[in-house]
Structures are given as structure tokens and as C-alpha cells.
Amino acid sequence: MRILVVASYNKGYYAPFIIEQAKAIEDKGHKVVFFGIQGKGFLGYMFNYFKLKKVIKTFSPQIIHAHYGLSGLLANLQRKIPVVTTFHGSDINNKKVLPFSKIAMKFSAISLFVSQKNIDIASPKDCLYQLLPCGVNTENFTQVEKDYAKSRLKLDNFKNYVLFAGSFMNEVKNPTLAKKAIQLLHNVELIELKGYTREEVNFLMNAVDAVLMTSFTEGSPQFIKEALVCGCPVVSVDVGDVKDVIFNIDGCYIAERDEKDIANKLEQAFSFKGKTEGRKRIVKLGLTNEIVAEKLEQIYQDILIKSM
Length: 308
Known about the structure:
alpha/beta, Rossmann fold, 2 domains
């Protein structure tokens, strides 16, 4: 199959999980080409229409897979090629964006949601939809010895480290709450997840004593799934699908949106020794890139059969 992936390129690169998903599809023998959207907001996205039409004419895709609601809306302005749209959370949780996402749902051949919470919020009607979280690249994210990972990153062996779920500049991630919790702890450093390569992120998730998520909203955060694959203890508020994914895993904790409770859960995570069973959980849930690619392949094939 020939698949055209439509996604934002506003940061000068595609989201890593989108690239890794596309690579897993390519590994199954399909041809994947990217169309990068440049421009923000409704009008910024729609200004890409004629460029998209040119790529469609040149590449002649059989399927267009759009990531996020506005990308799905743009892709559906043409009605020749069937569109699969994956909604990742911010396009559902943001009330200003949700109306545009609903239009994309209506015209997409199928809408894919990464969490049940997002389905509940979106309340898709008169359209085909499915729950399908993004998978994790279990080749890039592997388990290595903690001491080795810390030495690679030049981290202090006599300090506890917590990896935050994003940039401190991203208000949706709620860094203020995370920092308040860390201030209640002794000799603990909060590391901002910003500017690292994927290889370095893998080492970070093996080196730190816990990862921390305090976000206001999420879909099915890759950050948590990648940490689980690395066997890293997790502390998170109840957001997105995190509670379901980490349920009953020793060393993983759901905290209240309160700095004292978060600090308490982090101390419990620090006391956990060794690797968690997170990697087994991700495999059991079918959340590896390989399994998700198989499901996407079947979705694409079903759409093509219906469009004949």
C-alpha cells in the first residue's frame, strides 16, 4: 500500500512517535511518505491545502493517515483518497479545537482515538471509530543497568533524580505542581525533558529513580509507556489512560493533584528496587509498534475493500 502521513512540521520535525509508527508500517512492506504541515491554527493548517493536493497527485496514495484533528480536517478537504485520522488528546481536550476535530471525525473513513477518555469527551456519532493507542518502539527503548545509564549521563550517584514529562514551558504539563512536590523532598533533582535525543531519553528513563507526570490533560502519553518499557517507576496524576496502563504494577503510583501526595508517592518510588514489570504490561496490552502496525494495516485494508 501507499500511505501518505499528514502531520504537523511546525517544530521543524515530526513527533517521534509518528515517525516510529510510520517506520513500523514501512517494515511491513508498505510505502510511506510524509506531508509536513507548516502553519498554526485553523487558517494556518488550511493554507497547506494546495501543497497537499500536489503531493497527492505526485504520490497517488491509497490511504491518507492524518495525525491530530486539524490535520484530519485538512486531509478531508479532498474527497478522493480515504482518510484515517488519529486523535491524540490535545485535539479533543482543547475546547477551541474540538469542533474542528468533530468535523474531521465526520468525514474520515475511520477515527482512531488513543484513550477511552477521549472517546467519552468527543462522543463521536454517525462515524466509524476505534480505540487504538500508539505503540512503543521496544527496540529503541530498552532496559540497561541503572549505574551504567547514570554514568553515561554523568549523574550523581548520591542524588535522586525524577524525569518530568515534558518542557517546563509547556503549561499543559503542569510543571508548577511538579516543582512544588520536588521542593518537599531532600536531595532530589527534577529533570526537564527537553532537547534530548531518543537515545538519551532511553538512558534517562533507565537512570532516574522515577518519572513524573502532573499534566492537566493527556490522551495516551507515550512518555509513560516508554518509561514502563524501560522498567522505570512511575508517579502520575490520574490523566489520560495512565491509571489503566499502570494498574497494579509494583513501583508505579497514581497520585492526587496535591504536592504532598505526589512527594509521598515519589518517596515510595525511590524505595522500589530494580525494574518494574512495565515492559511485560506494554507487551500484554499489545502496545508495541509492531502490534499496532499490524492493526493499522488491517484497518487500511478494510477501508480499501469498502471503497472499491
